[in-house]
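ingest -> validate -> predict -> emit
validate: passed (alphabet ok, no gaps, 289 aa)
predict: started
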Amino acid sequence: MERLGKRLVMVLDREIRKRCDFLFLKKKYKTKPGEYEQIFWRTEQGLKQNKPRVKLTTYHHDTLNIIIDSNEKYPWKFPKSNILRRKLPTGDYALIDNDEIIAIVERKTFENLLKEFSQMAFFHQHLVNLKSFKNPALVIETNYSDFLNIDKIGKYYTPSFFEKTIAELFAYHTNLTIVFAGNRKLANQWTYRYFEAIKSHNEDTPHFKIAEIIDEYKIPEKANDINLEIKKIITNDFPDEFKFSQIKEKFPHVSESKIRKVLKNLRDNKTIILVKKGKKSYWKKLKEE
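emit:
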């Protein structure tokens, strides 16, 4: 069971027809103010037959905040992004949100990777360090086939050596996304879209039903899903009456807009209400009937 945006994907413990998902949506009334919920149960067979219109849930509209390592001589371009040049602890490009690295990319050219393959023990250590950050990726500006081309790899290595070496990278670093992008332009484009998707998913507040199911069955969420953590702290640890400043004090690195989204979600689901407004405002938990 795993949350993918507004979907809860489930794989049942049986041989056939074991996949399904639940899609949670909110729609506005056409004839009156307010919203109503829609929950769709979609089976594996139904998804194959109906082929619903594809709608991406990780489409990002806002500006990205990207750090480019100061050692990058000819860096990639990221349109409509805030770019900061400084020394990164590892990697070449990092996506930041509230001063936290939420995705990091190591860029390699064909020549760079040839050099790294000559000192594999050191390269493995470097990738382990890269994986200590959220959503790490190794993006290579060439094709896999180039490492099997004798004219390109020269006389010092054989295609068989590179086949085994690259396979070792994938086997040792299963939590690292490795992409052979083909060329510089495509590597740049892949990284830009990757950062967009990560930022969108990071800001996506899961439907409260998904959060409750995941919490009940103790399903591990993504490390960057801070929304569920805020909800749990509010419902379980906070007093019956609390202020916004208490949440901010508990989560100093989370943006106010993200906290307000969580509060709105709890209010819409009649878990809390806002008492008063302005400087004297506070939130109050609603007792279950």
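Residues 2-50 form one domain.
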